[in-house]
Write a structure and sequence with these properties.
Helices cover 51% and strands 16% of the residues. The protein is α/β, with parallel strands linked by helices. The protein has a 7-stranded mixed beta sheet with strand order 1-7-6-2-5-3-4, sandwiched between helices. Helix 7 (142-154) packs across helix 8 (179-187). The longest helix has 41 residues, at 2-42. The protein is globular and about 65 Å long.
Amino acid sequence: MMGILRKIEQGGRVVTTGISFVLFGLGGLAMALAIFPLINIGFHARDLRQRIAQIMVQRTWRLYIRIMALMGTLSYQCIGEDRLKRDHGVMVVANHPSLLDIVFMMAFMQRTKCVVKAGVWNNPFMAGVVRAAGYIPNLGDPERLLEDCAQALREGNNVVIFPEGSRTVPGRPRVMQRGFAYAALKAGAPVRLVSITCVPPNLQKGVPWYRVPATKPHWTLTVHDRIEVFEFAGQDPLPVAARHLVTRVDEMMEEKLRA
């Protein structure tokens, strides 16, 4: 009997997961077509428009994860959320186990920009959202990307980056790219580490969205202490300092995920 009930519950989560994806697309389209054009008309200063758009995105994604929790699709918690709320001009780095990681990160942060791939930048459902919020496109020019990230940090924005570049591939070691370290060092911005776990694993790279686990997945975001970059900046040439900073972040991430 218990096995049958679990199968029914798992099937229900397949349905609500599909509904969640539909809501995500429709929500992005609604903001791009209805809300952000009104912001553009009502506010002429670009920085103010972007701040308002970022607040709208944060509140929308916060509502979105609450709806998923109410539907029974998932559960979640953010340990140290107040730290994220207080951050300004901070490079926030996190591991990337699932498709929903960026949604959770943006739901708990204010005045925040993230790096988006070309596919998202040009996606008809999301293009209006990411452009209105002033997010940073990764269009294949590494130098431009680093400078855009550094400038966003100098202006007081938080910047969220997954140093792995894409979702972690199950069974493969995590490899961090150095771009976030270069940007943080160029801007003199501290680095905030956030570790993300999803138990049981869900929405992993290479796994179809409808292959949901037998039990409800639970996301935990844990916000850790900041790393001040002054101990790296100025001591070595920039490439060496960036390598040392990446090593520190990678070691800390490994320690936190094993705890």
